[in-house]
Amino acid sequence: MKKSVYSLVLMDSVIKAVDEQAYRLGTNRSNLINQILAERFCCVTPEMRMREIFDLLSEKTGSNFQIQKQNSSSLITLRTSLEYKYRPIVNYKIELQREPDDFLGQLRVQIRTQSQPLISLFEEFFLYRTTLEKKYFSLLGLDYQFTLSAGYFARKLVRSTADSEKTAIAIGGYLNHLNKSLQMCFSAPNDFPSCEVENEYKELLKNFII
After folding, report:
1. Measured between alpha carbons, how far is 205 from 63 in angstroms, rounded to an integer?
2. Which H or E element spans position 36?
3. Paired sense of beta strands 103-112 and 152-158, if any
4. Cβ partners under 8 Å of residue 69, min gap 6
């Protein structure tokens, strides 16, 4: 969205209140004033678009995750525990770009545990998952960007639609499938149904690429 520079004369007390609120929201003065004016005059801002996506995403994944919204309008955290004897916590963080280009944003997944066997199993699963996703992204001529380290996985989310509801459905479907696959890996690592997981992933790609 195009932006221009304008001069405004405002009361010092107004600026003080704006700056305090901007700090609490993790943004800056200009961006907050832009949001306030956009809401007042029914204009759509990137923050409004991201909030809409996250609200819809919460509706579509709420039964599988604990939703933890952040102060930042561009970030949401979804938390779940694995069906494993220690019930380790896994955090899924979605961070959207204010102005998406080829990528909508980024997904970060992190397991909270000090257990080396659990961390190793987490890495083994995502080695499998990245191989699977890279395969189909390559067939579609798309760039697949990811990072994998001890207990941590991140990947860029491809922008496949400008529609907020379809974006939320795409992210929600992907997260539900990813979490389901991870749960299956931890519950029975020696009997992981890789063919079933791959077929389900292929079905997801028929509707949305994310």
Report:
1. 23
2. helix 29-40
3. antiparallel
4. 54, 76, 77
Q: How far apart are CA 87 and CA 176, in angstroms?
A: 18
Please report where in the chains the tokens 């997260």 appear, as a residue.
Answer: 175
> Which distant-in-sequence residues (6+ apart) come within 8 Å of 27 by Cβ?
35, 47, 72, 73
**For residue 110, what is the DSSP state?**
E
- Give the sign of the dihedral formed by CA 185, CA 188, CA 192, CA 193: negative
- The backbone torsions φ and ψ at residue 167, rounded to the nearest 5 degrees and listed phi first, read -65, -45
Domains of the chain by residue range: 1-43, 46-207
Separation of alpha carbons 52 and 67, rounded Å = 15
Q: Where are the beta strands (DSSP E) in the chain?
A: 66-69, 75-81, 89-96, 103-112, 146-149, 152-158
Q: What is the pLDDT of residues 131-183, one digit of tens each?
A: 999 999 999 999 999 999 999 999 999 987 778 888 999 999 999 999 999 99
pLDDT digit string, tens, across residues 84-120: 777 899 999 999 998 888 899 999 999 999 889 999 9
Radius of gyration of the chain (CA): 20
φ and ψ at 110, to 5 degrees?
A: -140, 135
